[in-house]
Each structure stands twice: as C-alpha cells, then as structure tokens.
Specification:
Length: 276
Amino acid sequence: EREMKRRLLILAATVALTLAPMARAQDSGTMAQVKESGELRIGVASAEPWFYKDPMSEQWTGVGVAMGRRMADKLGVTMIPVETSWANAVAGLQANQFDIMFVLDPTEERKKALAFPENPLFYYAMGALVREDSAAKTWVELDTPETRIGVTLGTSLDRNVTEMMTKARINRFSSNDEAIAAFAAGRVDAVVQFHPALVVQYSRLKMGKVLLPEPVNPVATSAGMRQEDSSDFLDWVNATVADLYAAGVPDELFRAYLASKDIDPEGIPGLVKEDW
C-alpha cells in the first residue's frame, strides 16, 4: 500500500510538471510566458524556402526562421526552433509545445482552432516555371493546345489550373519533384506551383525561368498562435508583422535565403505583392 501511494505521488508530480507550462500560458498568456522564460519558441517543419534543416549541422534556416529571429530580437529573448510537421502544427500550438508558427495559411478550419493576426505576414502567388525562350506573360498566353502544363495532383493549384486552362494539355504528377523532373526531361513545357517553391526548385534545376503570369492573384499567409484570454501576444504580433511588411523585411529575408543558395534574386518575384 505504501508503494502504491509512492507511485501515485510520483505520477501526480509528473502530471503537474507536464501541465505547468500549459497552465502558465492559459493563466497569464503567451507574452508573459515568453518574457518569463526568455525564449520565443517557433514551430518549424521542413519546407523550403520557409524552413530548411541542414543535414550536416542540423541547423535551421529559412524565411520563417529568420522572421522568428527578428521577432525574438525585438522582444529581447532567444529564438528556439521546435521541430513539428504541417499536419501537427495546430495541435503543437494548442499543447504549448511552441508559441508561434510562421507561414501558416489562415484557412477557415485553422481559424476555428488558432489565433491569427489581422495583418498578413506576406504574400505568394501561383507561378510558373517556363522555358528560357518562352514569351508568355499571361495565363491566357500559356493556355494553348501546344503547351503541356505540369501540376501536382489533388492540390489547390491542380483545381485552379483545371478551371483556367481549357486548351493546354494538363499533366498531373504525384509530387512537386516529379513535376519538376518532367520539366527537366522536356515532357512538360511549364510547371505551376506557388512561386517561392518554384524558385527553390529552380535553384536545383538551374534551367528555365520563374514568372508570375497575369492576372496575378496574391495569397496571404500568416502566423498561427494559441487562442487565449490575453490578447497581448496576438496584438504585438499583429503590429509587428505590419511594421516588418511595410519595411520590406519579408523580401529582404527571402533574398538573403536565395543568396545563401547561390541564387541571384534579381528579377525573382518577392513576397511583397506591391512590388510584383
């Protein structure tokens, strides 16, 4: 009986230690927790150019990581990357495993579970990787019977291209990489993806050119946080992302990341839609 009581006490203490961070966050809010701990924990999930983990050094870089570092510096705290996945990002935030995750699109489903700032983090758009000698500037000019378009099966881009392209031959692939491989082999004339992902694909391929065919429809991305009673952290993030966007910081971070991959950012569309 004494041994049973001892085990129950140990279990109760373990549960209390586990729940303590969550309780602090719920009681005082994320901003108070960040200042108390001296750390801003950001969720990171492998996806260039937003988050990239170097296989040798295991260090994280990317636009999202750089944005997190900027925000941590403003708060006077240390940025800590916490590895997660896109599928687990919402649950990770709710469980107080990290404080914020950048480049998380504010879908209606996510808005039910997380808090998002009103101001956008930055923008990206549906882009196309085309041949160097392509003269096309618009989606209409790409929509010809002679043009073979590659898209990733089942994505929102697949749906968009299917609706927009009535003449071009659409080729669907199971992954982004397969679509790019088809482009490299000359089996398709253009690949449609969100433009920052295309830029990274281009960096590996070193062929063709990335463009934003007109009409350009910007897609706003954001930063997800826990829903909580205190709005201190949400309000601060909302004001900060607005200031950073107005100062052109998303473009600055994107261009710096491209340069780190030996890509000349000149002529590549950035993340500030007003400059497209």
